[in-house]
Amino acid sequence: MSFTNRAVIVAGAIALSGGLATAAQAQEHTLRLQTHFAAESVSGQMAQEFIDDVHVMSGGRVNIEAFFSSSVVKSVETFDAAATGILDVDMTGGAYQTGKNPAFQFVGDIMGGYDTPWQQYAWLYHGGGFEKANELYNQFGMELVGWWIPGQESMSSSRPLRGVEDLQDWKFRSPPGLETEIFAEMGAKPVVMDFTEIFTALETGIIDGADASGLANNVSMGLYDLVEHATYPGFHSMPSDHLAVNKAVWDGLPDDIKRIIEVAMQKLAFRTTLAFEVENNKAAAELRARGVNLYDWSAEDRRTFRVAAQAAWQRWADRTPEARALVDSHVQFLGELGLIE
Q1: What residue spans of the chain are helical by DSSP H?
Q2: Does one domain contain both 175 and 34?
Q3: Peptide bond preceding 233: is omega within 30 degrees of 0, i.e. cis?
Q4: Where residue 5 falls among pLDDT bands split at 50, 70, 90?
Q5: What average pLDDT score do residues 291-307 get?
Q6: What strands, in cross-sheet order, belong to the sheet with 293-295?
Q7: Closest among 119, 108, 145 to 326, alpha carbons compared
Q8: Are residues 91 and 192 in the same domain?
Q9: pTM (2 d.p.)
Q10: For the domain that residue 137 is a member of, what is the CATH number?
């Protein structure tokens, strides 16, 4: 055999082995992720972009299998499903887990606190929030990777919502946790139900309205095909949707893959907040043109809500040491920003 032929065979063998190695390396990690958002919603589309970013940046080593609209388990059960290995990744929000520890309220929806998503991100990344929050997640076998915050949510209603007085006997879908107490004290009748049940409950008149999501997501869900009143700009709720991973799974990932997921999550956060600033304004213009009534609550009514919410924080803070630690951290940071008296 000539030297040239040997070289060709060796080169071919090297190329084949390299190809096999690349194939073996591809889809080295498969992660099963569930989100409560529908795939066609603005948030669902952005979640898919995050999944694509991780796949591309990892050179195909990470494949994320996504389940939208809480298609595996109910939204509130996603965290446990990830912690126990039914799933790997929870892409819902911490506020669903207040039954485990009231502290989850203050990593999920700090009601009546921050005015903008950027202020809320600042607590996580610059106010010592991440370390305190992750200690809580780790207690339940999960790792907090990051937040994506669309902005202030809007309440949707079949009745006018001009201010505090209109809350009297208003029956609405509420997520579990602090919100139910605040609004009940203000005269409303909150009903806790799964995110995926909102449309049917409104359609059948089981509820008068809903705290579902931001204006753009509410439009994509078709809520304003059923009701013609909403609060906008929002003021009561600004959930931090999270990315949380089974801790054993997370700890088993290589450092470069962890970094890729963290960076992709921060991109998702940035793009989400920017996108919803645009999309919510577009949605507002569209809804006004359709004759939907949008109510911007007065400064006095907003203050009434914030006072009630911040009083409730302190009651919740007394329930567990973890809740107290998080509330105190938020209060201190809000004070530094001049947002709380």
Answers
A1: 3-25, 42-57, 78-83, 105-108, 117-126, 129-139, 178-185, 198-203, 215-221, 247-251, 255-290, 299-317, 321-336
A2: no
A3: yes
A4: low
A5: 92
A6: 189-192, 171-174, 209-211, 155-157, 229-231, 293-295
A7: 108
A8: no
A9: 0.81
A10: 3.40.190.170
